Amino acid sequence: MIKVGIVGGTGYTGVELLRILANHPEVRVDVITSRSEEGIRIADMYPNLRGHYDLAFTVPDVERLADCDAVFFATPHGVAMSMAPELVERGVKVIDLGADFRIKDLELWSRWYGMEHTAPELAAEAVYGLPEVNREQIRNARMIACPGCYPTAVQLGYLPLIENALVDHRRLIADCKSGVSGAGRGANVGSLLCEASESFKAYGAAGHRHLPEIKQGLGVAAGRPVGLTFVPHLTPMIRGIHATLYSVLKDPTDGLQALFEERYADEPFVDVMPAGSHPETRSVKGANVCRISVVRPQDDDTVVVLSVIDNLVKGAAGQAVQNLNILFGLEETAGLGIVALMP
Predict the structure, then answer these.
(1) Which of 88, 106, 179, 299 is in Cβ range 3.0-4.6 Å of 237 for a Cys bridge?
(2) What pLDDT is stored for residue 197 in this prediction?
């Protein structure tokens, strides 16, 4: 049985990790931490987990976490890089759901996140945990940087086109929408029901922290820097991401559906929908699945990819568990056979 710890277990990604791992046949959660909720039992904070855990939140302690085989960080940026180096040196596998290790250019990271990176050597070693791209590197990693939610939906949607150099890589457009859970569980006026309901707005149009992460991933796939316009939007729903991705084909082709189906044929958590489909966020709610469809409107040179995920599952906790499974040589789907909730 693999013993895991979760640092920052009171947020939405933390409780999703607990929900998923409660049904994992090979994993036991030994430590759950929160400075603000020390002593409170998991089931008292999250009654949906009653009967699944007999643990209370404790203050993060490296000595106790070092007894785990793996530790998840479901924390704001700046936390993982302060604790992860010592855990890694003591033989613990670390999976960071935050942003500390996603971007390789640490000067660029510091500009977007407003602080100096304190673990540059570990950042250089960290493997970007998008299994559909880096599965082999993940198997041997000590430190995994779990991708962000928007970057997951956008990269999976664009990869078949970018990898095959079918589109103009200089002029990519990602028009993305997210539910309010993407803002986290902390008190925030903009996330209140009365503020977000019956409304729809863009944010971060001039620049969003996920932009350099997306450009980095697509640039690796393209073998050169890409040009990307990324505009996220807040929608009046709790969870889900819908990415509408636009690009211009170099040579119009009718083989896009087959291209996408072939690229993801062996991927357990990417579902290429039949031609003409319009995937819905509700079809992935609670599940570790990305559903994709590809369209050429009016058979012109513009290609539109529609990509949907649950931001808390394939965009966070589910993908983290997928990485854990690969890392420890388990069945990649272990604990992740969750059917989406409908309605």
Answers:
(1) 179
(2) 86
pLDDT at 186: 67
For residue 71 the two structure tokens come to 């530790």
Q: Is the pLDDT of residue 49 over 90?
A: yes
For domain 2-125, the question of CATH label 3.40.50.720 is answered with: yes
**Closest C-alpha among 32, 146, 149, 151 to residue 100:** 146
**What is the amino acid identity at position 106?**
L
CA distance 22 to 26: 10
Where do the structural domains in the chain lie, given as residue ranges? 2-125, 150-311
Residue where the block lists tokens 């785990």: 68
Peptide bond into 232 cis (omega under 30): no
SS3 246: strand
Q: Check: CB of residue 6 under 8 Å from CB of residue 74.
A: yes
302-309 and 241-248 as β-strands: parallel, antiparallel, unpaired?
antiparallel
pLDDT digits 0-9 by tens, 211-261: 999 999 999 999 999 999 999 999 999 999 999 999 999 998 889 999 999
User: Could you confirm whether 194 is annotated as catalytic?
Assistant: no
Distance CA 37, CA 172 (A): 43
Bridge pairing between strands 2-7 and 172-178: unpaired
* CATH classification (class only), 150-311: alpha beta
The least confident of 13-22, 47-56, 103-112, 184-193 is 184-193
Catalytic residue among 68, 146, 149, 176: 149
Q: Residue 300 is encoded by which pair of tokens?
A: 């012109």
Q: What is the pTM of this model?
A: 0.96
60: left (phi over 0), alpha (psi -120 to 50) or beta: beta
pLDDT at 269: 98
